[in-house]
Structure formats: C-alpha cells, structure tokens
Design goal:
Elements: H1 2-13, H2 19-34, H3 38-53, H4 59-78, H5 90-100, H6 104-121
Helix pairs in contact: 1-4, 1-6, 2-3, 2-5, 3-4, 5-6
C-alpha cells in the first residue's frame, strides 16, 4: 500500500521538485549513510521520503503515507541489534539520479520497488 501511495505522491510532486529540494534530499540520504544507530538512520530515511513527496501538495495522502511509514518503522525497530552499520541506500541514489535527469517514471518505479523490497524484509 505504501509503495503505491508514495509512487502516486511522487508523480504529483515531480512538477514541483526544484534543485534545492533535491539537494535537501541528497543531504538526508547522506545523513542516513552516516547514521550511528537504527533510530538516526530511520529519521534520515523518513526525511528523504518526506522531502521528495511533500511537494505533491496533498496533505491527506502525505498523512496516510506517514502513518504507513510509522508502522514499518515499528518492524525495523523490533529487529534492531546493538551493533549497527548504516546501509548505503542505492535506491535513494537511483531515485535522485532519475529525478535530476527528468525521468519521473523511472524514479516512481524505483521508489515503488524500494518500498516493496523493504516491506518483504519486515
């Protein structure tokens, strides 16, 4: 469900994405790569998704996505181990690269696959 809703939000956000917004998303992605624990990584991950989706201008859709993100975070935290190594998020990189290249459909597809893959791991 989250994959479909985020893809929809991204489709409507794309026309409003600016270089500054994409640069913010880049910084959120880098923060995730530097995360020292699962909580910091989850905050950076959530920030990345919010940054690229918020320009859709659909608050009810964003609220539903946020609720689903919170639910998936519960699964992430339940499997947390004391040792933590931040995963490099190649999907976030691919999404940003596609958005910067003006390839909205590719960005949507990668975003949906990214969320579906994470959902299968939870």
């Amino acid at each position: 469900m989250r994959a479909s809703l985020e893809a929809l939000a991204l489709r409507h956000a794309v026309p409003h994405l600016t270089k500054a917004i994409l640069d913010q998303a880049e910084e959120a992605n880098k923060a995730g790569d530097r995360a020292r624990d699962v909580q910091a990584w989850e905050e950076a991950n959530r920030s990345f998704h919010r940054i690229i989706l918020t320009p859709c201008g659909m608050p009810r859709l964003l609220g539903a996505i946020d609720d689903l993100h919170t639910a998936s975070a519960r699964f992430l935290f339940s499997g947390w181990r004391a040792e933590w190594e931040a995963p490099t998020d190649r999907d976030h990189r691919a999404i940003l690269d596609a958005l910067r290249a003006g390839e909205a459909e590719i960005a949507e597809s990668v975003l949906a696959r990214h969320i579906q893959t994470i959902g299968q791991k939870s």
